[in-house]
Design a protein that fits this description.
- It is a single chain.
- This protein is mostly helical.
- It has one domain.
- It is built from 10 helices and no strands.
Length: 161
């Protein structure tokens, strides 16, 4: 498994970070589904995600979203999710690993760090600037939601090939 890949399926993410972290994030994600639908993507706007559109019913690349997105939950989600102390400590591990990174592991796990892979610069560095035109076409009605999602997922999957 190439750990420098940016876009990951659930199983690829679990292979890199382990079952325990994957399980905790799945618990948070379940709560996120409801909370995110109410706020219409405040976090996505705040972190500068260029794949965000208020017109999408949910993240267009959710099943292959970057690890940075998988670890990003706003305070509303974290506060609404009853997590044991053990689960909270599990969530802190990747951050601790990044902060004490002596062997470049953080660079392998988060290849664009500190750059967010879905902001303007991140998409440019990945060579998928055309994502912006797909979003505009979707927002203007030239593409329906499923078409836009499929095109964006294809762009992301073909990154680095």
């Amino acid at each position: 498994m190439n750990t420098s890949r940016v876009f990951l399926t659930e199983s690829e993410f679990e292979e890199i970070f382990g079952k325990e972290i994957s399980r905790v994030l799945q618990v948070l994600s379940k709560n996120a589904t409801h909370i995110c639908s109410l706020c219409k993507g405040d976090c996505c706007r705040e972190i500068g995600c260029r794949l965000y559109s208020e017109k999408f019913s949910s993240c267009p690349i959710s099943e292959i979203r970057p690890r940075e997105c998988r670890f990003h939950f706003c305070h509303r989600i974290v506060d609404a999710t009853p997590l044991s102390q053990e689960y909270r400590e599990v969530l802190e591990e990747p951050t601790k690993d990044l902060l004490k990174d002596e062997q470049g592991i953080g660079a392998k796990l988060f290849p664009l760090f500190p750059q967010f892979p879905l902001d303007t610069e991140g998409l440019r560095s990945l060579g998928i600037e055309e994502a912006g035109s797909v979003i505009r076409a979707f927002e203007n009605g030239a593409l329906d939601q499923d078409q836009a999602r499929d095109i964006l997922k294809d762009l992301c999957r073909n990154t680095g090939k």
